[in-house]
Every structure is written in structure tokens, then in C-alpha cells.
């Protein structure tokens, strides 16, 4: 059953399937996860076939497999393949949907303090046209206040747009409850699931969202340069394609054209077919592992990191809220975040640094200019976590 825990035998197999696990303790999965070997091989073999047979000819031979990618993504998020568009990344997917909405001066958007910088830039751009953006701040316990959300809604509210899991924090927004409020008030609802897909079970029907954007390179373990956009069937007429070519149409003449009746109206014809197949193989891999089992292991490993870091003098863990994810953020009194990251890298341990701009409202409100981000995945081990904790303790002790 999916909810059974990943066994040590399975873990050994998943790590054997992943060449990077033999070389580094990788805690930068919120940046880009280590791909399974089969994902890499899928991309490489397709590129080799293109070099031998030609690009269009190779695509013709892989039509069925390329079509299957949409079906696999739909299965992962509980949607339909006609509601999926393949994009280069989550920012592209989110922007395509947002820019496709018919917002006008006087309309209002509600978002949260955890909104990602790419989305925030588009919201700031909308404000220049007379659209009002209302930012809901978390409470003192790091929880998103649903009552404040409902209170902020008025006749001008046309969109609720939130990021489920922030770039620089371990807390999570209650996207299902937010979706219920949006549905109750008949407000268009967009979810950025960039950090969610691949670590957390996401079901678009339970969330009641019209739009969901995601990337491949993070917890999904797909190649960089991949992502997808979900637009519900009922919302596709409300979201205009940002760019358009013949791929987006079902018919075209000198008198006009008709858009195709699915989410691929948001794609352009020319994309990297090898990366698309790699994305599909990564989705297939996580479906085989079981996303519920991935989530169970990710959050338990992240809890071990938080517990270990909290016991180190001068280290502050910054994750707050009712539900925490696989992203662990912390700062050191003894060493700057970037220096600590670099010193850990010399020990074969990958972490990343979250800058102030990534989640601007959150970082400014909490007086943070940077923090270390250690993001765990199911293929990480308890021994690797011990290495991380020991290394942070030794590095900070040397610089006290």
C-alpha cells in the first residue's frame, strides 16, 4: 500500500538508481533534486536518436510516449490530460496563466506574505495598471489566517493567488481550506506548487483551484528546463494564451482561427522533446514510489534536521506553522549563510542560500537578509543528516 513506509531495502534501491547519491549528501532538493539514472538515460537516448534519425523523424517515432507524459502528470495531480500544458518551468507556467486573466483597474488580488519573487513581480506589474494587491500576513505562530482571508474578500476581489510552500521557509499554506473559501465566494484561484509537486500529495480537485503551476527540477526529480501548467477545463476560456502559434489552434484560415479545446493552447509548438520525456519518466518514477510514502519520509527526515540544528548553540531554525515540509531554514550567529554553505560544500554536503528577494514580504517582516536552506528528499539517509548536523556544529564552533 502507498501509505506503507519506504523500507531500508527500497531506500537502498532508490539510492542505487541515483548516481549522485554515491558522490554527495544532497540537501538542495528545493533547488534541484538529484535525478534518477533512468531519467537521465531517457533524455540522453532521445538526443542520440535525434542526432541519428533527425528531430522530426524521432518525434514521430515517440508520439505515444510523448502523449503519455500528459496522462502521467494528470494522474499525479488528480486532473485530466486535457488540463495539462508542458512548460519550461513554474515561473513560465504561472506567468502564462496570470497574464492571461482579464484583470482591469479596480480589481483586487489577494495573496500571502510567502509569495515567490517571480509571482510578486507580476503582481507589482499589475498594480501599475490599477489592480490592487492585498497581502495577507501570517499570524505570530506562522499560520496563514483564514479568517483574515475571508474578511479581506469583497466585490472587487477577482483572484486569490498563493504559493503553497515558500522558497525560503518550511511552513505550508492550507491550500485546500483556501480553495474552499475561494469556491464559496466564486473567486478564481491560482496555486504555485513549485516546491510541492514531488514531495507532497496534491489533488487539484480537493484544492478546488482553477490554475496550478509546477516545476520539474525540484522535488519531482526531473530535468532542469521542465515544468507544467494545470488549467481546469472550466477555466480555459477565462485564461487567454499569452503567446500563440499554430500548435494552439484547432483551425485557422485567413478569416480567423479557433483555439484547440485543451490546455495545450498555452504551449508553443517548439519545445525540447527529450526533456519532456525526462519529465514524464520522473513522474512515472515518483508514482511507482508512491507520493504518500515520499511525503511521510520527507517530513520525518526534515524533523530530524530541525531537532539536530536546534541543539547547536548560535543556530536559529526559522520554520514555523502547523504543518512543516521538507525545507529546513536556519541562520548562524557565527557565520554568514553563504560562507556556511561554501564550507559545507567542501565537505561534500549540498545546501543552498535563500536571499531576501526570494520571498520579500516574509524576509523583510522577519528581519532576515539571508538564510541557509537544507531541503531533504526521500533518498536522503539518517546518516547523511548526522553528517550535516555534525558539520554545522564543527564549522560554527570553529568560528565562535
Automatic annotation (TrEMBL):
It comes from the Bacteria. Residues 27-388 form the Aminotransferase class V domain. Pfam families: Aminotran_5. The keyword DNA damage does not apply. The keyword Transferase applies. Keywords: Aminotransferase, Pyridoxal phosphate, Transferase. One of its GO terms (molecular function) is transaminase activity. Transmembrane segments: none annotated. InterPro entries: Aminotrans_V_dom (IPR000192), PyrdxlP-dep_Trfase (IPR015424), PyrdxlP-dep_Trfase_major (IPR015421), PyrdxlP-dep_Trfase_small (IPR015422). This is Aminotransferase class V-fold PLP-dependent enzyme. It comes from Terrimonas ginsenosidimutans. The lineage of its organism: Bacteria, Pseudomonadati, Bacteroidota, Chitinophagia, Chitinophagales.
Amino acid at each position: 500500500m502507498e501509505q506503507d513506509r519506504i523500507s531500508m531495502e527500497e531506500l537502498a534501491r532508490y539510492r542505487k538508481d541515483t548516481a549522485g547519491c554515491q558522490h554527495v549528501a544532497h540537501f538542495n532538493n528545493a533547488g534541484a533534486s538529484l535525478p534518477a539514472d533512468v531519467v537521465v538515460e531517457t533524455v540522453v537516448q532521445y538526443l542520440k536518436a535525434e542526432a541519428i534519425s533527425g528531430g522530426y523523424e524521432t518525434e514521430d517515432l515517440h508520439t505515444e510516449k510523448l502523449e503519455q507524459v500528459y496522462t502521467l502528470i494528470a494522474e499525479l495531480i488528480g486532473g485530466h490530460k486535457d488540463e495539462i500544458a508542458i512548460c519550461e518551468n513554474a515561473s513560465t507556467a504561472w506567468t502564462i496563466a496570470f497574464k492571461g486573466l482579464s484583470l482591469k483597474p479596480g480589481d483586487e488580488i489577494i495573496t500571502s506574505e510567502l509569495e515567490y519573487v517571480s509571482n510578486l513581480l507580476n503582481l507589482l506589474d499589475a498594480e501599475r495598471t490599477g489592480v490592487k494587491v492585498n497581502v495577507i500576513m501570517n499570524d505570530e505562530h506562522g499560520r496563514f489566517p483564514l479568517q483574515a482571508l475571508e474578511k479581506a474578500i469583497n466585490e472587487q476581489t477577482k483572484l486569490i493567488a498563493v504559493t503553497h510552500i515558500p522558497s525560503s521557509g518550511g511552513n505550508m499554506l492550507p491550500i485546500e481550506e483556501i480553495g474552499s473559501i475561494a469556491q464559496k465566494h466564486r473567486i478564481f484561484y491560482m496555486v504555485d506548487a513549485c516546491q510541492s509537486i514531488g514531495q507532497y500529495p496534491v489533488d487539484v480537485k480537493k484544492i478546488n483551484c482553477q490554475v496550478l503551476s509546477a516545476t520539474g527540477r525540484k522535488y519531482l526529480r526531473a530535468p532542469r528546463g521542465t515544468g507544467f501548467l494545470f488549467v481546469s477545463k472550466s477555466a480555459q476560456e477565462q485564461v487567454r494564451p499569452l503567446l500563440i502559434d499554430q500548435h494552439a489552434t484547432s483551425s485557422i484560415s485567413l478569416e480567423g482561427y479557433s483555439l484547440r479545446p485543451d490546455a495545450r493552447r498555452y504551449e508553443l509548438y517548439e519545445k525540447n522533446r527529450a526533456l519532456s520525456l525526462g519529465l514524464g519518466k520522473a513522474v512515472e518514477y515518483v508514482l511507482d514510489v508512491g507520493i504518500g510514502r515520499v511525503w511521510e519520509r520527507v517530513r520525518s527526515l526534515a524533523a530530524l534536521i530541525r531537532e539536530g540544528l536546534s541543539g547547536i548553540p548560535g543556530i536559529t531554525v526559522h520554520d514555523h506553522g502547523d504543518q512543516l515540509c521538507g525545507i529546513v531554514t536556519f541562520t548562524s550567529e557565527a557565520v554568514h549563510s553563504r560562507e556556511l554553505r561554501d564550507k559545507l560544500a567542501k565537505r561534500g554536503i549540498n545546501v543552498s542560500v535563500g536571499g531576501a528577494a526570494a520571498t520579500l514580504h516574509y524576509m523583510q517582516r522577519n528581519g532576515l537578509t539571508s538564510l541557509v536552506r537544507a531541503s531533504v528528499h526521500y533518498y536522503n539517509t539518517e546518516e547523511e543528516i548526522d553528517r550535516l548536523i555534525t558539520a554545522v556544529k564543527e564549522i560554527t564552533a570553529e568560528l565562535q
